[in-house]
Amino acid sequence: MKNKQLTVWIIGGIIGIVVGAFFFFTANDTQAGTPSFQVDTEKIELGEIAVQGDYPAEFNITNTGDAPLEISDVRTSCMCTYAEIIIGEEKSPEFNMVMHNSPQVRRWKDTVEPGESAVVRAIYKPHLMPVEGPVERSVIFTTNDPNNREVELRISAIVQK
């Protein structure tokens, strides 16, 4: 009889530990939260511009989720377009096309905390690859937002010679 009671207590204890561990780890997973990427606009029109000059455009992004939003793998669509990310007082290195970014720049990543905002600044420099007429350039990066793994922000202009 004592062996049966001991066996029941041991099995009950094991079940209690398993159930407790399940709730402990499940509670920690839900506390981790999810980041959520929001941007004020996905495209900025620069209008008519001259070939000479640098033309910045700023996209305001916000993490509306409840976990840090990671930004990485920043690149541009053309060697005439540069980008930088400004989070608080910190400014990223200047990004360009993947092949023109140094290994250190390619490894850059940072986070936007929940409820915080950042600026993605695109700088179009048409004099580096002179063209005439309508153009569209992009800044592309990855995030850990499950609904926005890759983000593309675009600028367009009509270049006058």
From TrEMBL:
InterPro entries: DUF1573, Ig-like_fold. The chain crosses the membrane at residues 6-27. It comes from the Bacteria. Pfam families: DUF1573. The keyword Cell membrane does not apply. Keywords: Membrane, Transmembrane, Transmembrane helix. PANTHER family: LIPOPROTEIN-RELATED, SIGNAL PEPTIDE PROTEIN. This is DUF1573 domain-containing protein. It comes from Candidatus Roizmanbacteria bacterium CG_4_9_14_0_2_um_filter_39_13.
